[in-house]
Amino acid sequence: MTTPASPATPDVTSYLYREALLTLLSRMQRGVLLDAERGLLHEHVEHLVRDRDRLAAAIARVVAFADRLDADADRLAAGTVHPVAAHVRAALDEPAADA
Hints:
By secondary structure, the protein is mostly helical. It has helices at residues 15-29, 35-76, 83-92.
């Protein structure tokens, strides 16, 4: 179960979140990042990595579902691709699974 983002965790797609992250990265690159800002930058990056991992896991589950649909369709008629699986793969730019 997912919980809504708390006010302390801004939406990563928001302008303010992205601007804050870019500011911290710019300050780090110029060598003027304060010690207090280091933890904040670390939190921002960790948050992005966790989001990326969650998205990758969700995509893997969808691809596995498409594989199961294709396997079921193939059992009914050899060489058949399930139409929903084909649409899912097209949306994800994923190749068809080899049977």
